[in-house]
Amino acid sequence: MRSGTVTFGAHIIGALGIDWATIESNKELPAPIAAGAERTKTWTVCVEAMEVPPLERSREWGSVPLGMHVETRDVSMDWT
To answer: What is the DSSP letter of 52?
Structure first.
């Protein structure tokens, strides 16, 4: 692999389990990677308070309002 990106779909989940929004973020893959080789990498996925739906951000408690949480449920990669 010569180059590529990984896309994360971070879901904003409300206190009652409602999926309010999905925020995508893209990161570069650690390339190049030779055929048969393995590479391990971790990324931090951040969600800005402004990306939380307006009804749920009347009071900000850090990045996500009280009672809500973030789950990274979707991950995809594109490489060449």
So the answer is: S
CB 39 within 8 A of CB 33: yes
Neighbour tally for 59: CB within 10 Å: 7
Q: What pTM, to 2 d.p., does this model score?
A: 0.69
Percent residues over pLDDT 90 in the chain: 28
| pLDDT tens per residue, range 42-62 | 888 776 665 555 544 444 444
3-class SS of residue 35? coil
Counting Cβ atoms within 10 Å, is residue 33 exposed (0-12), middle (13-18) or buried (19+)? middle
Cα separation, 2 vs 19, whole angstroms: 36
Q: What integer pLDDT is reported at residue 52 of this predicted model?
A: 58
